[in-house]
Structures are given as structure tokens and as C-alpha cells.
Amino acid sequence: REEEYSLISYLSRVQYGFKNKYLVTGSIRVDGSSRFGTNNKYGYFPSISAAWKINQEDFLIDSKTISDLKLRASYGVTGNFEIGNYTWQGLLGSTNYGSNIGLSPVIPRNENLTWEKTYSTNIGLNLGLFNNKISLELDYYNSNTKDLLLELPVSSTSGYSSSLQNIGEVNNKGYEINLGVRNQENEFKWDLG
Q: What is the pLDDT of residue 47?
């Protein structure tokens, strides 16, 4: 059985930096997939991020202790289209009626299927001490996935056993801490994380 699908993407990105202290990046991605019906073929996925290099400020620029101090924040949306190639159209499959072979519906048509979307927020802090010999990264993340693409059981009286739907929501959040130490004595170098 031969299958194919198409995906087209457009990406626009803008970056701005002021005095190597304040950084902002914004982007928008548009994806179109043949795996969805004409009403929902395209998904729009924006993102924005900003950073403040605090160690570049006048009150820290000459610090012998703090070599890096950066506050970061970002927000973005991503999409998932990992479903069957012709699922939204509905599919027929072979079946037996006594000694005869025929066709019967296997997957119901769903023109309302749309992109599964994940909305992610991240806030972080980078700290480097003593020419970055000691580094610390702290992050808080929060991801909400909506319109999950899931097979939903349906009554067998409909003629189907399941139907692919955009249903459900998942939240994933937490903290990440990364501590690192590195040193170099002549030609001997070691890292610990």
C-alpha cells in the first residue's frame, strides 16, 4: 500500500539587540498539512523570547565574581500533525460477507480535525561565577497541550470502533536546575555537571 502526504511551512523571524544587554526575538511559523481537511489545513505558531544580560550593566560589568548573569523568558506555540495520512477523509476497508468480499467503512470522516497545539512558557536564569568556572542554570517551564489528537472509542452501533478526535488536554510543568564546575590547570581540564 502506497501513501503520501504533503507539508508546507513558512517562517518569519525578527531579532533585536540593544547594547548587547537587551535581546528580543519574535517568530511566526505557518504550517499546512494534507493530513487535515480544507477548513483546518493550516496552523499558526507564534513565539517570542527576551533576555536581559544583567552582567553587562554598569553596576556589574567590572565584577570579578559574577562573569555571567542573564534573565530569560520565552513563550511559544508548536503544532503536532502526527496522524494517519488520510484519516480526516474516512477510510474503507475490505470485509467478508459470507463468501463475498466487499468494502465497509473503517474510519469515519472528520473534517473538523485540527492541529494539536502546545503552548509553552519558560522563565530562566543563567549565573556564571569566577570567569564561568562555576555555572548555574535555573528554569521554570509550563507546557499546556490542547486539542490532543486521540482515538476516541465510539458505540459499535455506529459501525466503527473508534473515531479520531481533538479531545483532551495535558499539562507538563516543573523546574530544572543545572549546576556545573569546570577548571583548567595547564593542559589538564575537567568538567563536572
A: 98
- Output Rg (C-alpha) for the chain, integer angstroms: 25
Residue 141's contacts (CB-CB under 8 Å, 6 or more residues apart) are 120, 121, 122, 172, 173, 174, 175, 176
Within 10 A of 189 (CB to CB), how many other CB atoms are there?
A: 9
Residue 1 banded pLDDT, cuts 50, 70, 90 = low
Beta-ladder partners of 42: 32
Grid cell of 33 as nine digits: 498539512
- pLDDT band of residue 88 (cuts 50, 70, 90) is confident
Q: Confirm if 164 and 107 have CB atoms less than 8 A apart.
A: yes
Tens of pLDDT, residues 37-56:
888 899 999 999 999 999 99
Q: What is the DSSP letter of 56?
A: G
Torsion of CA 115, 139, 126, 51, to 10 degrees: 40
* Residue with the three cell numbers 507564534: 46
Coil/strand/helix, residue 31: strand
Taken in order 190, 64, 139, 77, the sign of the CA dihedral is negative
